[in-house]
Amino acid sequence: MDQAIESPRAELDITGVTCPMTLVQIKVALEELSPGEVLAIRLNDGEPVENLPRSLKDEGHRVLKLRGNPDGTFQLLVRKGADPA
Questions:
Q1: pLDDT value at position 7?
Q2: Can you give the pLDDT at residue 1?
Q3: Is residue 67 exposed (0-12), middle (13-18) or buried (19+ Cβ within 10 Å)?
Q4: Residue 73 lies in a domain
Q5: What's the number of domains the chain is made of?
Q6: Is the peptide bond between 20 and the residue preceding it cis, with omega within 30 degrees of 0?
Q7: Max intra-chain CA distance, the chain
Q8: Is 16 part of a structural domain of the chain?
């Protein structure tokens, strides 16, 4: 089992944030991580769940898991991609 999936390096709650600030806050959090480390993001259903995984993949990160939480929010686990050269 991949230990990084079970133990994210950092966590970010963007449930009270609206687009486009959701992606901005995620980018800032990812900048604090080294390539290969995992960020756990708590987000709301709807636009964030529909758009953020695709946006993060487009930027070179790997979406590991998206799962629902009992309170109606979601958890998105993202492995940081390589830093641009």
A1: 83
A2: 41
A3: exposed
A4: yes
A5: 1
A6: yes
A7: 40
A8: yes
pLDDT at 83: 75
pLDDT less than 70: residues of the chain: 1-6, 84-85
Q: Residue 13 has what pLDDT?
A: 97
Domain assignment present for 41 = no
User: Is the CA virtual torsion 52, 56, 58, 59 positive or negative?
Assistant: positive
Domain assignment of residue 44, yes or no: no
Q: Does residue 23 contact residue 55 with C-beta atoms inside 8 Å?
A: yes
The boundaries of the domain holding residue 21 are 3-36+50-79
**pTM of this structure:** 0.88
CA dist 46 and 52 (Å) reads 10
